[in-house]
Fold these 4 entries.
Entry 1:
Amino acid sequence: MNMDLSRRDFGKLLAGAGATAAFLQLGRSAAIAAPVAGYKAMVGIFLFGGNDGWNMVIPTDTTRYAAYAATRVANLVLPQANLTTLAGSTYGLHPALAPLKAVWDEGGLNVVLNAGTLFQPLTKAQYQASPTLRPVNLMSHSDEQAHWQGIRARDINVDGFMGRLSDRAGASSIPALMSFSGSQLALLGKSSTPLVLPSTGVVTQSAVSGNSADPVLFARNGAVSAFADGAGQGAVTQTTATGLSSAYAQVVQANTILSATSGVDQYFVNPTTGAALTSDIARQLIRVARMIEARSTLGHSRQTFFASQGGYDTHANQIATQNNLFTDLANAMLGFNKAMKALGLNENVICFTLSDFGRVYKGNAQGGSDHAWGNNHLVMGGALKPKQVIGTYPSQVMGGVDDIANDGRFIPTISQEEYIGSIARWHGVADADLPYVFPNWATFSTGGRGPLALFQS
């Protein structure tokens, strides 16, 4: 379930056949910032629907695994012997995430525990006493997707953290902010524009002269192409036409990269069978890898990508559903990790998961789990401090100090600012710009809080 954008926001994201919104950004100046030496990329993978992180990351020590097995409904419990053990920790991953064990073992995978949307650090007593301290409309798909992408827990989100991050980056002829998951709030900036590309095929331009035998369509396309020329038609038309022509040029450049043969594709194979990966998340990450491979051609020293996988709203039949989704996700992430290593860029690229919210710890009678709050996440990349599990696993007592209900709706103990902010800072966002990218930065960067210590330096 993807969040809906308003017509106005949709227009900001799409141009032509969905490549860019450059021609709609009239009167906006490019962001001005000195480029940072070296190359870095961040890849956000949004797990739409609300991933059950409590079956993605499970404690393996005797006491807490016993509490997990006793507290969750029986048809949600994963046998301890089947878990993917994370060596050196007291946690294991869902069995379908087994391909990521190799990444953990080499020091390229971290786990973040109980992260979520927060307006301020919150105790259960504060939650109960002061509704104004809570994020608005908690456990609503659309609202929590907006909270995660816009990073405002109590205000209307009109732009997103990736777009604002891009505002502070240097401009280039083709945007360094790209999505292979359609139009998303995270991509909206105040001055920058994203490139929205398909996960299969290439971008088609419907408004090109001479591309149709239909005389009406031919005439329309010719008119649009003439408009894109803009010569001698006044300042406003000229400005719009320049943006439209730029959008078409970006399409041509992007299509060249998407349609060419690339060496990165060979790494996206099933680790057991060797068969090429065909899932949508694999196709997205293949294209992300291609754009990273082409970074010099594109003139990018920094790149930001949005990818996603849907289907995580598991109110029933969760075991089978998560097994299928995690199999595709793990294989795609492993392939991406191998591709980055082959390019010599494993230490330059970070992948991280996001999701609407976590799900109730206890579960329900239908073999699923309902909407909740805090959640667990994965971070992958060669620049990480090796083999970290960051954060505090919540109390497994239903109705206890961490549970706002009586079924395991846990209050997050790590905010989005602390989680994503650490990645943004690594990516090159200056400390002075962090309050712009994360509007509530001051709340989570003082009083002993701050970005998570994910990275080696």
Entry 2:
Amino acid sequence: MAPHEGLVHPKEYDIKDSNVELIGTDLDHRVKYNSASTEPAWNDGKVGQTPGLFIWRVENFEVVPWPKERAGEFYDGDSYIVLHTYKVGDDKFGHDIFFWLGSKTTQDEAGTAAYKTVELDEFLHGAATQHRETQQRPSDEFIALFRHVSIRAGGVRSGFTHVEPEEPKEVLTLLRVFKHPSAGRSIIVYEVEPTWESLDDNDVFVLDKGDKIWVWQGKNCSPMEKARAAQVVNDMTLAKHIDVEVLAQHEARSRVIVGLLGGREANQSSFQAPRPGRFNNPATGGSAQSRKLFKLSDASGTLSLDLVKDGQRVSKSDLDGNDVFLYDSGDRLWVWEGAAASKQEKALWLKVAQYYIRQIQESVAEAYLTPIIKVAEGYESPSFLKALEV
């Protein structure tokens, strides 16, 4: 994230203009917990009590359990909530809650996902780390939860109008299969534009033409990518019995696939296409010069966001349990919530974080894709502590 200025005393967050007298109080927490305790999605006897992965999709303002066998499968028109519960010691659990926003999800779906994430955190007694994830720039922590990730076009209809593309006269779907550049052994299956310009020597592509499935193996693709593509094709042929043809790029016949994708006139022997979003240029962490630490405090009577450190190393000793801090580490925005922070500071963390991102967007167009992660004092995640050490 590039260096940026300002963000002092944002007027819209003046306490006098906010009707939030009870937010953050014991009564507020009890009300929210009671609401969460009646949510069927959280009350299956396993959520929060059993280690593992739990996934829900937002459908018509409700959270609906996602089939376990489809873990890692997402649609760009939807929003999802993913809970990862893991053991910490012998008798304690740690929790990470991710709400994942597809690139074409609607405002009501995204809003429901954010609201329900807060509710789930309340159900877990505020002990969870909350993550806002976007399709175009998912964090390594999110991708590492799944052995395989598949991102396809489409999605469930929302409570509001969900824009649907017109059906093409000929069904043509192109899937790009590639290894994630930094998240372990994760293999990504990503639906891309069905054109020959989407091809790349380094990856495998699956072309579903409706009446036949073609597999194009780039000359530099890996065995893992070939194996994953084979699994994808197997799943597709279970649903419809059609012919499949696998062609390696070095085979002369592989030009058939290029032609089917509109490249009959293309005569190159090598193909290069950027991978989608952050899969193309994975973030490696910002330089020390780009990192910033802000304090969100209402001690003066007006909620303000003040720059505390700019370019210097940030450590846990810089954090005060009486306030909320925003730490821009370069590739993501961390929100650290002090245990004794005020009700207003705790209530507005996401709104302030999004406001901060909007300011950066004036100079960095894709800043809105930045992962936002909230950690609570005493429940800091290993990835947050690591971000402070770098």
Entry 3:
Amino acid sequence: MKTILTNKHISIETRKRALQCYIEPVLMYGCEAWTISKQVQNKLEATEIWFLRRMLRIPWTAKKTNERVLNEANKRRSLVRTIRKRQATFLGHVMKEENWNIW
């Protein structure tokens, strides 16, 4: 996937879509059962920025902030939000199947 994600002849939108379709599902496998601490959240956000830097060919030694990288990629942070959404959906399914009564 490196050759596709770093290819300058492919538009950034297509490369972001490839990242979303092929890389993120592997990264988030089983995320419904994860316990996300602040440390894990920071690592997930760093991973998301790392992917964008690789796609845009921005070395880590370049003095560009994460916000600038996000602006260049025309993207917002979404990885942690997606994981939280999946966890909430999974909890709803578990509660429905088990027929739990909280009250």
Entry 4:
Amino acid sequence: MSVRTLEIAWPDLGITVTAELDGRNPELADTLWNSLPYRSLQGHALVAGSHLYHVAPIHELLHTHPSERIADRREAPDGTVFLSGLQHLGIKYGELTEPMPAAPIGRIRESDLPGLLEAGQAIWDAVYSTKKQILVEVREAGTSGGHRIPRLTATDPAADRLLRDVHTETERIWLAEPVELADLHRGTIPSGAGSFDTVLPTLLFVNGETRPLGYASYGGLVRAAAGDMPLDSLRQMARLLVGVPAEFLGYCGLEKLWAFTQRFLDCLDRLDRDEFQALASQLALYINCLGGWNLHLFPWDAADELRQAGRPV
């Protein structure tokens, strides 16, 4: 069987690397292969070390279980490519500090590792300080690029309208910063959230609520639906998990997210299992996209002088 190869390109940096899918986790690898080509905002790990990741527009990543895991991704060779249930495609390019199990699908070619290192350093600078928006394109090797966000459907009219609206909004913000998040990071907060006119605490709380809402709450609901949790239990868990953080985020400026959440909760009792999973999946992708932008826009260098004791700068 011929080896499937990907090109991972950062056009703004003039860097392209080639990854070979090596047969590990074939189900996961297939979800990626079938989604190509796509583009996304490139991110960088903020607490784990030399690791690149971006949100991939692949609904199946939320519930596709890996058949093989590395117990500690710190031990993986540089250039290892991973997929995760957080809808991330990740690439290790140097030392990692976080001991975490991970699902590998392939490797960057040895000859491309210097280019990968150069890209990693430039992307770190962009995420941490300059805020330059660097896009990544993932495509089958030797093909032209492109992009699409998959749109799920439902037979219930209200649910299908919500799916359409969430999909449209996700397309709008996928490659361009969300206006509401950009305004928030500039200090424009219509509700006045932020005690005594502060901004940084509000940014911190928005980041702290958005990531688990997408990764754990909606991602968890998708996995529970795919794993045959009873439908009544799914509805109850949705009501317990998503309303409070979404309402808070709406107060902080993410009003569309709160409006979508209210519509989701309003139609819960009419949804069958497939419709529930479709809505939770579409909302997870949207919120994970918001989370990616928030991580990029956040002023991480605001306390640049605060460094770990005993570690070199």
